[in-house]
Automatic annotation (TrEMBL):
Residues of the CENP-V/GFA domain: 4-113
Entry keyword Metal-binding: yes
Gene3D superfamilies hit by this protein: glutathione-dependent formaldehyde- activating enzyme (gfa)
Family: Belongs to the Gfa family.
Cited InterPro entries: CENP-V/GFA, Mss4-like_sf
Source taxonomy: Bacteria, Pseudomonadati, Pseudomonadota, Gammaproteobacteria, Lysobacterales
Protein name according to UniProt: Aldehyde-activating protein
Cell division as UniProt keyword: no
Length: 134
């Protein structure tokens, strides 16, 4: 089975996932822009089990539909590495940049297109949603 390891910039916080991604997407919502310090977040979902090593700082945010998301950051370098949805323990969402792999597969969907910066160009053929689909 294929495994991938994502880590923070300093290497203190790591997550190892198994198998292929369940999907990769980008989010242009303002919360993700502020959280990442970029104009969008790119995340890849993986099924459990997964293995976390190191210490994480957590931040819980409530999404538009009321779901709570628990984001994990490195307390040393501040890198965002992964997050989970409360009540959704069957999978984890990993920040694609934390894999440090320029050959990582492209996203299949894009959410919060209403907040996408006009100059951001995404691959053709991906599903696009004005907001977050329920």
């Amino acid at each position: 089975m294929t495994s991938r390891t994502a880590s923070c910039c300093c290497g203190q916080l790591r997550i190892e996932v198994q198998g292929e991604t369940l999907g990769t997407g980008v989010c242009h919502c303002l919360a993700c822009q502020q959280r990442t310090g970029s104009v969008f977040a790119t995340i890849a979902a993986y099924a459990a089990p997964y293995k976390v090593t190191g210490t994480a700082t957590e931040y819980v945010r409530t999404g538009d539909h009321g779901a709570k998301f628990r984001f994990r950051f490195c307390p040393v370098c501040g890198s965002n590495v992964f997050h989970t949805g409360e009540g959704e323990e069957g999978f984890v969402m990993v920040a694609v940049g934390a894999f440090a792999d320029p050959d990582f597969p492209p996203p299949q969907d894009s959410v919060y297109e209403c907040r996408r910066h006009a100059w951001v160009q995404l691959p053709e053929g991906i599903a696009r949603y004005d907001k977050d689909p329920p």
